[in-house]
Every structure is written in structure tokens, then in C-alpha cells.
Design brief:
Blueprint: H1 2-36, H2 45-61, H3 65-76, H4 82-110
Helix pairs in contact: 1-2, 1-4, 2-3, 3-4
Length: 111
């Protein structure tokens, strides 16, 4: 981290950290767009941008996954069609399941 800070400077390093924090949320938005790409209701660029903003704001204010997804769902319903919202629901289920498996694996390695 020190080498990165020295290379980028304080301002550049702060921008990098902000970008890096958003990578998981951008990946979720990209995954959702990909899941909808070949459907009757693909995600528009505007919707993708709004959804990314929703993800980023929820991640910044919510301490746990359950609260994060609750906030995302409450706001995303206004910008997504019912079919898109259903796809988002499936993505949430996959994400939550994957994270639970990751936590269980990590816990079993500590024993």
C-alpha cells in the first residue's frame, strides 16, 4: 500500500481506494446486465448506471448483506421492470448463498 500511495500520491491513492471499494458492486451490476442481455428486457445503460449508484450507496451505509439487499430492493423496484426485478432477486440469492459458503469454508479452515 505504501508503494501504491507513493506512486499515485495522496489524492490519486484516495481515488484508487474509492474505485477499489466499488469493484464488488460494479461486478454485481455487470452480472445482472449480463443475465438480462439476451432477454426481452435487457438492462439499459441508464438503468445500469442507476443500479450501480444504488449498490454503491447501499454498500456505503449498510453494515451487513441483509440490510444492503433490503435497501437495494427497495430502491431498485422503481427503476426495473418486474422481469428485471425477478432477475435481480435471483442474483441476490446466488450472491448470498455464495457468501455463506465462503464463510463456512473459512470457518472450517480455522479449526
Amino acid at each position: 500500500r505504501d508503494a501504491m500511495r507513493a506512486l499515485l500520491g495522496d489524492h490519486g491513492f484516495a481515488l484508487y481506494l474509492k474505485y477499489d471499494e466499488g469493484v464488488p458492486m460494479r461486478m454485481l451490476a455487470k452480472q445482472l446486465a449480463g443475465a438480462m442481455h439476451r432477454t426481452a428486457t435487457p438492462l439499459s445503460a441508464t438503468q445500469a448506471g442507476e443500479l450501480l449508484q444504488i449498490f454503491m450507496e447501499a454498500k456505503a451505509t449498510e453494515p451487513n448483506d441483509s440490510a444492503l439487499w433490503t435497501k437495494v430492493f427497495s430502491r431498485a423496484e422503481a427503476i426495473l421492470t418486474p422481469a428485471q426485478w425477478h432477475t435481480l432477486s435471483g442474483l441476490r440469492d446466488e450472491t448470498v448463498y455464495g457468501e455463506a459458503i465462503g464463510r463456512a469454508r473459512a470457518a472450517s479452515k480455522k479449526r
